[in-house]
Input
Amino acid sequence: MFVKPMLLTEHGKPFDDDNYLFEPIIDGHRLQLSFIGGKPKLYTRHSNEVTRQYPELHNVPLREPADVLFDGEVAYVNPVTGAFEFHTLQERYRMKKEPRIRDAKRSMPVLFFVFDLLYYNGVDLRQHPLLERKQLLSYILEDNAYFKKMLYVEREGSALYELVKNSDLEGVACKRKDSIYSEGRRDSWLKVMNAEYKNLAMNANRESFFVS
Output
């Protein structure tokens, strides 16, 4: 199962708003995980299947058995420095031979930061409010070494932006709590880019890396 993703629309500056929740934008690539009938399928935002690239994500840590579709961001985090390493994620993505992939699962495991739940046990949740989807996600998914629920704050977007800027991350996602999940760029999901982020030119080419 794959659905066309909802995307962020760029916004000029950070803000506080009781109607919004705010998440850090991390240095990875968009990923959907479909887990239906106990079978995992992984897709990039352009619908390219990458199930075999990330075997560590095949065992989904659900509180109880369920059919789900998650949306999120996959990344590699250096276990020593705690830094996101996009070049290591690229290396994982390029791997084609099973022995290399099995070795990489142990030596350079990825992390899937899940920020949305789009389908649950036969119910399409995309017309449900974001905060409701988040609450259900929090209940059914357990964190482990490979899966993390994306942290978010309510209202305090400016404070999160300062933390993101000081951590040299890409920016902040600003999402209306009542937003439904709609294909394409929507004004209910915004992104405020870190003005001091040093790799904007590189990022302009990164998206195309995951198209093919």
User: Anything to note?
Assistant: The mean pLDDT is 92. Residues 86 and 202 are 11 Å apart (CA to CA).
